[in-house]
Amino acid sequence: MAYLQFNKAELVNLEYSLKRELLATNRAGGYCNTTIVGCNTRKYHGLLAVPVDKFGGHRYMLLSDLDETLLQHGMPFNLGIHCYGNIYEPRGHKYIVDYEMDPYPVITYRVGGMLFRKELLFVSGCDQLLIRYTLLDAHSHTVLRLKPYLAYRSIHALTQANADANTNYRTIEGGASFCLYRGFPDLCLQISKNSEYVHMPDWYKGTVYMEEYRRGFDCREDLLVPGWFEMPMRKGESIVISASTVPVDPKTLKTLFNREIKKRMPREDYDSCLKAAAEQLFAYEKGFARICTGFSWHEIGGMRETALTLPGLTIYNTGDVKLFEKILSDLITENKDAFLHGSDQVESPLRLTEAVQHLAKFTGDEAQAWKKYGKFLKQVIESYLGGRPEAQVHDNGLVWAEYPGIALSWMNAYIDGKPVTERRGYQVETNCLWYNAVCFAHDMESRYGRSKAFVARCAEVKAAIEDSFYDIFWSEERRHLADYVDENGQNIFTRPNQIYACSLPYSPVSEEAQAEILHAVERELVTTRGIRTLSPKNPNYRSRYEGNQIERDTATHNGCNRPWLLGPFAEASFKLFGPSFVRKARELVDGFQEDLNVHGIGAVAEIYDGDPPYVPHGAINSALSVSAILYVKYLINQYKEETL
Length: 644
Known about the structure:
Distance between the termini: 35 Å
Strand content: 25-35%
Largest sheet: 9 strands, antiparallel
Number of helices: 18
Shape: elongated
Helix content: 25-40%
Structural class: alpha+beta
Strand order of the largest sheet: 1-9-10-11-12-19-16-15-14
Number of strands: 37
């Protein structure tokens, strides 16, 4: 029995099954994402979404769906399912009797005396999806019909019936090739068995994506069905269909499918699911290694997100130092100007120091880490000291972050173009990261460098921060740090950003103050699904990530849980309390095991509601969430070893 499995009663209940999504990626930016019954509920859903070089490498949905129909005695049994407003047609989910995911999606249908299995695999490193069909049982002559639904549009957009689409096709070995618009790649559909292709192009209008409707977005789309493929199937026979951007040899498809199976990581328990989810988040393309922030709509190679997630997804997951260094070096290469001359992510350059500190700690070789990255980290510090468009270092040593109309921190939701939580001024986490970067550079350059002038400048800034930080940020009323300080004084909302005063290797406050900070955070923010972004005691608290876009964007940083914050919280707690925190840490990460079959199957969501029952939302496989849990589990094992 598979670790991740659903039975017929669960699958035929659309209220249940449409909330659960499968994901397959090719580790090169492409993906397949839909619900476990195959009904697309988001504009991001589809079978083949790939980056297109001619359009800036952005991802485009080529193949939205592929309906399977089984025919016996002239009677068609359509296994597909599409939403047309209040109507689902056809209703092929009623034939599903089993869904399992170990290590890839396998769906089993029963139609009368027919038992039919469908397996999905995305080929590693290629824009190619493979689907293997097996007729497990049948008592009469059976024909399989496959009907593709073409989208050919950005994953962020929708398409409508139009006269510009090229509805023609090109015959290729084992199938047909389509390309609706100039500049797009071909969609090559090829089958391992000889089949008949019937060309009869037609627009299927009015498909509704219910998750987009629920979120208040455009939700109706027209899809082009160019025709269909038909072939007879014998009992026990398997065939493989390939959807790819270049023609392949159809005679190799069965062998390729079996070869790809061997590359898949098992999903047989909590830990293996986390490792498999992490593996899906890497993207290797054109010599660069990147991290996707989350599937399906987040960007690949984001500055802040890569720096945050890199340690957890690499060294604390598989111990892969080379991959860590490759991704970090590529991140610096691709974003050098933003890191050194200004960006809309004020603290992202400072997170590079934190990442390098993780590397040095893991390898035990800080000299080598400084040799490899020290020059660039020094340049980052000098960029702040010299002044950046979004940040200025004041005489008190602190960083003042401000850019009109821009939310410079990770709390960067907008409503009607205006930041929900702008937090202009002295942001607590930015200044903790700044102090940590200055102290680390001071110590490393003192030991392994040659620039006495740089060391002296860092010492001066370090002393200024130590003289000012506590007085500026500490709230006697709340007994914790202010979230930010502007010209009007302290914002004393109880938020999680102050955790960085406790988690980083260098802290500008005493251990006594750190203990009070952690106590306040644990008392008001920590839950079994992450850490709230705002205390429930605050009148601005919004616990539910639901409603229209304005309501959701208001809630996202004003109460909803963020699992990724468990990383710095656990790190801070272990620093202060040592092995005694192991039990609590295990409770905090084990809760997510219950949710592996709730949102993204086998993965961890980006956001959770702030109050029970802690419903998951956002990206179905979040790099931030997965990396944090992997890191906390690593810390648990390390501190357990210390007690042996």
